[in-house]
Amino acid sequence: MKKPIVLVPACSKMLGAHPFNAVGKKYLDAVALAADCQPLLIPVLGDTPDLDALLDIADGVMLTGSVSNVHPAHFDQAVRNPALPLDPARDAVTLPLSRRAIARGVPLFAICRGFQEMNVAFGGSLHQAVHETPGYMDHREDKTASVDVQYGEAHPVTLSGRLAEIVGATRVGVNSVHGQGIDRLADGLVAEALADDGLVEAFRVAGSEAFALGVQWHPEWKATENPVSTRIFAAFGDACRERMQTRSA
């Protein structure tokens, strides 16, 4: 059977001496296996592509996490730590793509950096160093630990709204692999998960008829083995299938 097409914008990376566009396999596996959709990588070449042409063939969009951060100029701040990586070529694609996908009713699922991108795209701001912000705990991973430990359960979040309905619970444990986080939640976004320190960990787009959800944690990590992740990706996949049926009608 034909599967829904999910656009997945790449990150720009240097691998050795050469620039690449790349997406982590764990994200593509989650789309293919947990959402049962066909991922389609979108290059980020610095210039905004023809977004409507891309969305014409898309049944969904997923914004991935990344080691890079959204450039703080997009939320009127200076760079706090020049040692941290940025990816302006990705910003040039994902920020307008987020807005256009929502405007056209294309299901959108955003993870970690993608979650932060979505907030910025709609006018919100970020803490560039959550761990240095009074009142918040350190949400970063232990980089000396194994990858399984880094992406293991780190703290609980309290769920509400549509996300609680999807997951079937109001309190779940999530991993925590981020240094930045939401400061001001953009107008039109509704918090659907909070960490115990009050940091927004998930949101939905208010009034969107399509699936329009962002999460700060990494549900793509071993998505088919984690019931919470499986339910979120299944809901995203179902929304993409509904979009495909509507698009082909």
What's the arrangement of secondary structure elements?
Blueprint lengths: L4 E5 L1 E5 L2 E5 L2 H10 L3 E5 L8 H6 L3 E4 L24 H17 L3 E4 L1 H9 L4 E2 L19 H4 L4 E5 L1 H7 L3 E4 L6 E2 L6 E7 L4 E6 L6 E4 L11 H22 L1
Parallel strand pairs: 1-4, 1-5, 5-6, 6-13
Antiparallel strand pairs: 2-3, 7-10, 8-9, 8-11, 11-12, 12-13
Describe it for me?
This protein is globular. The strands form 3 sheets. A 9-stranded mixed β-sheet has the order 4-1-5-6-13-12-11-8-9. The model has no long low-confidence stretch (mean pLDDT 96). The chain contains 7 helices and 13 strands. By secondary structure, the chain is α/β, with parallel strands linked by helices.
Provide the descriptors you would attach to this structure in a database record.
249 residues, alpha/beta, nine-stranded mixed beta sheet, two-stranded antiparallel ribbon, 30% helix, globular
**Radius of gyration, rounded?**
17 Å
Strand order of the largest sheet: 4-1-5-6-13-12-11-8-9
Q: What is the H-and-E element order?
A: EEEHEHEHEHEHEHEEEEEH
> What characteristic shape results from the CA principal axes?
globular
Summarize the amount of helix as a percent range: 25-40%
Model regions low in confidence, pLDDT < 50 over at least 5 residues: none
End-to-end C-alpha gap: 16 Å
What is the structural class? alpha/beta
Tally of extended strands?
Answer: 13
Query: Which band does the percent of strand residues land in?
Result: 15-25%
How many helices? The count is 7
Sheet having the most strands: 9 strands, mixed
Q: What is the mean pLDDT?
A: 96
